[in-house]
Amino acid sequence: MAQPMQMEFQDAMSPIMEELLHFHDHTLMIVFLISTLVLYIISSMMMTKLTHTSTMDAQEVEMIWTILPAIVLITIALPSLQVLYLTDEVNNPHLTIKAMGHQWYWTYEYTDYENLEFDSYMIPTQELHFSHPRLLEVDHRMVAPMETPIRMLISAEDVLHSWAVPSLGVKTDAVPGRLNQTSFIMMQPGLFYGQCSEICGANHSFMPIVIESTPLQQFENWLSLLQ
């Protein structure tokens, strides 16, 4: 989950989020280089008082400021397209979970199992355990096995919502009457926190998402207790 005064992304807990972090670092280096070049040119102009030239025909300069931005755009676009197609890829999921957004809670349905459905409400501050994060903990977590391809089917019952878990690199709109899907693989056990990322009304800030990643054996034990 996010920490106080955190300026960077959350640690990557899925292959997709790792790719997103790499793309972010790659793009940020290009931004730094461009910013440094522009700052150098502005500083040079200020120090030499070079504010106007009598050059009327400068094909070399025009070629540079046309070709160079094109190269920069290509170096950003190619990795971006690769990550974009990776996020849309759903290959042979081992488990399918449907998340339905309501005002203001989530309902999870394990579609591969009969009668396995529950609501997930935020725990009020006055009922929190000492170790639970405020405004992020829920009464029923979504439990899923680690190192397993998981497909999420996401929709909404009433208004627009958005199912987002930053550490997994997942953010998918929940639209009434429409079924969107995304997928992820959790590489480590743990608790991964998210929130609704679409303004959905007065209690928009009070419908968190908690995913509990467990080894497969513990997930099967959890299933046996519910069934």
UniProtKB/TrEMBL annotation:
GO terms classed as biological process: ATP synthesis coupled electron transport
Any one GO molecular-function label of the UniProt entry: copper ion binding
Matches recorded under Pfam families: COX2, COX2_TM
Gene3D superfamilies the UniProt entry points to: 1.10.287.90, Cupredoxins - blue copper proteins
Domain Cytochrome oxidase subunit II transmembrane region profile: start-end pairs: 1-91
Membrane topology according to the record: Multi-pass membrane protein
InterPro entries reported in the protein's UniProt record: CcO_II (IPR045187), CcO_II-like_C (IPR002429), CcO_II_C (IPR034210), Copper_CuA (IPR001505), Cupredoxin (IPR008972), Cyt_c_oxidase_su2 (IPR014222), Cyt_c_oxidase_su2_TM_dom (IPR011759), Cyt_c_oxidase_su2_TM_sf (IPR036257)
Reactions the enzyme catalyzes: 4 Fe(II)-[cytochrome c] + O2 + 8 H(+)(in) = 4 Fe(III)-[cytochrome c] + 2 H2O + 4 H(+)(out)
Cofactor note: Binds a copper A center.
Family under the similarity heading: Belongs to the cytochrome c oxidase subunit 2 family.
Name under which the protein is recorded: Cytochrome c oxidase subunit 2
Native organism: Pseudemydura umbrina
Gene: COX2
